[in-house]
Amino acid sequence: MNGHSGRMQIGELAERTGVSHRTIHYYERIGLMKPAEREGAGYRYYDDESVKRLEKIAVLKQLGLSLDDIASVIDLYFSDPSGIKGKEKVLQILETQLTKTAIQLGELSSFKCELEANIERMKGLIHSARDT
Questions:
Q1: Distance separating alpha carbons of residues 52 and 39, to the nearest angstrom
Q2: Which of 21, 75, 83, 89 has a CA positioned 20 to 30 A from the CA of residue 63?
Q3: d(CA 39, CA 83)
Q4: How far is CA 130 from CA 123, 124, 125, 127, in A?
Q5: Are 55 and 83 a contacting pair, CB within 8 Å?
Q6: Is the dihedral of CA 52, 35, 88, 107 positive or negative?
Q7: Dihedral of the CA atoms 65, 69, 71, 75 (nearest 10)?
Q8: Which residue, 20, 23, 24, is CA-closest to 45?
Q9: Pairing, β 37-39 against β 43-45
Q10: Residue pair 37/7 in contact by the 8 Å Cβ criterion
Q11: Whether the Cβ atoms of residue 93 and residue 126 lie closer than 8 Å to each other
C-alpha cells in the first residue's frame, strides 16, 4: 500500500472500490467522505474506513437512496458498530419513498383514465365528423 501502513493514495482507493477519482473528490466536497489526510507534498492518503464508506455509499445507492439521503445516514453506520441506527434511518427513508410512490401511482392511474376517456372522446368526434 504505497509503503504506508494501512494508507493509500486516491489511485489505489479508486482501484479498490471502482469509484473514480472525480467521484471521490465530489463525495469529499459534499460531506459523504471525510477529507483525506494530507502530508508533505500535499498527497492525499486514505484508509480502510474510506474503502468501507465508499462500499456503504454504493450499497445505499443501490437501495435507491439519493446522495442527500445517504449524507443523512452514512455517519450512523460508522458511529454505531451494530449498524442498527443506520438501518433504522434507511428503513424510514424507504418507507417515505414507498408512500410517495403510492401517491404518484394513484395520480398516474387517474391521469391514465383521463387520457383513455379523452382518446375515446376524440375517436367519437372523428367518427361523428366522418359520418356527416
A1: 22
A2: 21
A3: 32
A4: 11, 10, 9, 5
A5: no
A6: negative
A7: -90
A8: 24
A9: antiparallel
A10: yes
A11: no
* Residues 40/34, Cβ–Cβ less than 8 Å: no
**End-to-end CA separation in angstroms for the chain:** 84
In the numeric block, the cell 467521484 is attached to: 23
Per-residue pLDDT for the chain (132 aa), expressed as one digit of tens each? 444 457 898 999 999 999 999 999 999 999 999 867 777 677 788 999 999 999 999 999 999 999 999 999 999 999 988 989 999 999 999 999 999 999 999 999 999 999 999 999 999 999 999 987
**At which residue does the C-alpha cell 401517491 appear?**
103
Computed from CA positions of residues 46, 5, 83, 60, in that sequence, does the dihedral angle turn out positive or negative?
positive
121: burial class by Cβ within 10 Å (0-12, 13-18, 19+)? Answer: exposed
